[in-house]
Amino acid sequence: MLEIGTIAPDFTLPDQNGVNRRLSDYQGKKVILYFYPKDNTPGCTKQACGYSESREEFAGKNTVIIGISKDSVASHMKFAEKFGLSFTILSDSELSVIKAYDVWKEKKQYGRVYMGVVRTTYLIDENGMIVFASDKVKAADDFNKMLQLV
Predict the structure, then answer these.
(1) pTM of the entire structure?
(2) Looking at 31, 33, 44, 97, which residue is catalytic?
(3) How far is 126 from 62, CA to CA, in rounded Å?
(4) Does 49 participate in catalysis according to the annotation?
(5) Which tens digit of pLDDT belongs to each residue from 134-149?
(6) Could you tell me the CA-to-CA distances from 105 to 32, 101, 114, 134 in Å, in that order?
(7) Residue 47 CA to chain centroid, in angstroms?
């Protein structure tokens, strides 16, 4: 996980519509940048729906939401359409941003060890500085916690 007080690394990734987005495009706004393991899984769906349903509240606080996983653009498009998600979801199939933000880690589940995305949320201020970071994210409550922080 990246340190609080450091500048968030800029990047360019395609969104769910195939449009390239850069983090620096959002300068002047707060950015909730959250990394999640996989589209259409229970925890990831709860997290995404919570953010989507609260998008207007975040917008009122000059804050945009960006989700990133290694899923494809096509997977993100289906995920967004299925659940009516109203925020930007970026595809990092090459793992370049996932690794740059230090969220690609060894994980263990049911005795199996594998590499994967650790659910992590960053809050980036209007100048691109990381002001909050957590890898102890409860998917269903992440949006509430972040609403309180912004």
Answers:
(1) 0.94
(2) 44
(3) 9
(4) no
(5) 999 999 999 999 999 9
(6) 21, 11, 8, 14
(7) 10
